[in-house]
């Protein structure tokens, strides 16, 4: 009689010993279930299976059988071919989504992940061991309560844009994890940031607070950030005017939501732009606004604790002065000839002004986002013209510029003056006599 060889794991061998002790009544069912870490019902089932099938009864019934969920080799080869051609540098999750959206192949993320590992398209990473413990900060409760904001320089358009780095400005809502705005710009400078937030406020109104990185976003930290030396002051002033609380993070970990967003976008967005064959920032911004943001939020946003939108509507004052608020503001002193010098350009003030202007007065210069220059004093805009070159030094008898022309004073030899002088002298003689 031939003897069959039964292969068991150490765990199954240990279970068989316990079940045999239970059958031999050396222990009771309660003790056996504790040793097996199983329920009493499952322990009874194992006992019945061993009594019926012997040692074979302890082994799992599915061992050696083909899985019902195993994909066909033909489909497996097809998927590998598609991934190799189109998605070899994609992550398993994104590759799974594209296989479903574009190729109508519905397979699980784990299956795709295993196939990509098998073909060495994807390598598993060891989990980082953090040396420093950091506690998670709870999300804000309401949408619009705080926006995390930052910029990221990256080769977003790859070789289609000459392999140049482009700056992506992004804001994400802390309570919901929704991307509230994305925009490609030239740099992270004051003009680009002002344009970003002006568009944001006109579309969504004012958030309660903006959380940003004080070390990189608002100081010169990149060769393309040409005007960051005065960004913090300008942006802080604009937020104060709009009654928006500005919070500066002291570490990247403190604003982890926006940092993790950029990690995700540097994987997903780069590949989405590649699939759309987008090679310029204008088309990329249209794609972000029309397609990408909504799709991203549908996949990854969460439900806030409270269903309340805390964005504050723009006041009438905000709407009227929005161009002024989002302008680069500087102060200059009026010279003796009523000219103002700014960035090596000279401006001549007109004789008629809406308010009285004296020499040596300080005027506020606004550089608007549309490139225009405005001069103001005491909230009133002054009349001026741009000079083609530096004016020659002249002495002016004007003491001040006023809302209307000064009354005309006749010269000393004018007949009026002579007549008045003669009358005055005659009166003096009469008085003295």
Describe the protein's architecture and organization.
This protein has 433 residues and is α+β, with helices and mostly antiparallel strands. The chain has 4 domains: 10-58; 73-118; 147-300, 2-Layer Sandwich (Nucleotidyltransferase, domain 5), CATH 3.30.420.10; 327-428, no CATH class. The protein has helices at residues 10-23, 29-36, 40-53, 73-86, 92-101, 109-118, 190-204, 231-242, 256-275, 281-300, 316-320, 322-325, 415-432, and strands spanning 147-154, 166-173, 179-185, 209-213, 245-249, 328-333, 339-342, 345-349, 357-358, 362-367, 373-377, 380-381, 384-386, 400-401. The protein is elongated.
CATH domain fold name of the largest domain: Nucleotidyltransferase, domain 5
The domain tally reads 4
Q: Output the number of helix runs.
A: 13
**CATH homologous superfamily classification of the largest domain:** Ribonuclease H-like superfamily/Ribonuclease H
Radius of gyration: 39 Å
The portion of residues assigned to helices is 25-40%
- Based on helices, strands and strand pairing, what is the structural class? alpha+beta
Order of adjacent strands in the largest pleated sheet: 3-2-1-4-5
The second-level CATH architecture of the largest domain is: 2-Layer Sandwich
Global mean pLDDT: 86
Which stretches of 5+ consecutive residues score pLDDT under 50? Answer: 216-221
Main sheet characteristics? 5 strands, mixed
Bin the strand percentage: 15-25%
Number of strands: 14
């Amino acid at each position: 009689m031939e003897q069959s060889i039964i292969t068991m794991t150490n765990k199954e061998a240990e279970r068989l010993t316990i079940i045999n002790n239970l059958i031999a009544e050396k222990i009771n069912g309660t003790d056996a279930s504790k040793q097996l870490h199983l329920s009493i019902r499952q322990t009874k089932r194992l006992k019945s299976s061993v009594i019926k099938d012997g040692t074979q009864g302890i082994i799992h019934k599915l061992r050696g059988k083909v899985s019902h969920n195993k994909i066909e080799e033909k489909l497996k080869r097809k998927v590998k071919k598609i991934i190799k051609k189109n998605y070899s540098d994609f992550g398993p999750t994104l590759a799974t989504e594209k296989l479903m959206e574009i190729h109508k192949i519905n397979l699980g993320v784990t299956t795709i992940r295993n196939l990509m590992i098998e073909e060495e398209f994807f390598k598993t990473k060891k989990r980082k061991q953090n040396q420093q413990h950091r506690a998670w900060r709870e999300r804000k409760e309401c949408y619009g309560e705080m926006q995390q904001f930052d910029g990221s320089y990256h080769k977003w358009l790859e070789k289609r844009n000459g392999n140049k780095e482009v700056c992506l400005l992004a804001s994400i809502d802390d309570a919901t994890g929704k991307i509230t705005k994305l925009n490609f710009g030239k740099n992270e400078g004051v003009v680009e940031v002002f344009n970003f937030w002006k568009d944001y406020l006109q579309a969504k109104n004012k958030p309660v607070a903006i959380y940003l990185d004080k070390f990189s976003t608002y100081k010169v930290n990149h060769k393309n950030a040409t005007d960051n030396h005065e960004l913090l002051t300008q942006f802080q002033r604009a937020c104060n005017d709009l009654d928006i609380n500005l919070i500066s993070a002291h570490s990247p970990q403190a604003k982890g939501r926006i940092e993790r967003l950029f990690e995700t976008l540097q994987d997903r967005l780069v590949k989405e732009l590649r699939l759309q064959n987008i090679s310029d920032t204008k088309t990329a911004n249209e794609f972000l606004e029309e397609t990408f943001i909504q799709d991203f939020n549908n996949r990854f946003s969460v439900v806030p604790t409270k269903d309340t939108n805390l964005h504050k509507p723009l006041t009438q004052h905000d709407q009227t002065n929005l161009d002024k608020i989002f302008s680069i503001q500087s102060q200059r002193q009026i010279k003796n000839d009523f000219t103002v010098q700014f960035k090596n350009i000279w401006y001549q003030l007109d004789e008629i002004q809406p308010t009285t202007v004296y020499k040596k007065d300080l005027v506020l210069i606004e550089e608007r986002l549309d490139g225009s220059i405005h001069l103001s004093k005491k909230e009133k805009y002054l009349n001026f013209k741009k000079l083609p070159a530096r004016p020659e030094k002249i002495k002016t008898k004007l003491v001040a510029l006023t809302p209307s022309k000064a009354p005309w004073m006749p010269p000393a030899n004018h007949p009026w003056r002579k007549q008045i002088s003669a009358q005055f002298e005659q009166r003096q003689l009469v008085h003295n006599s």
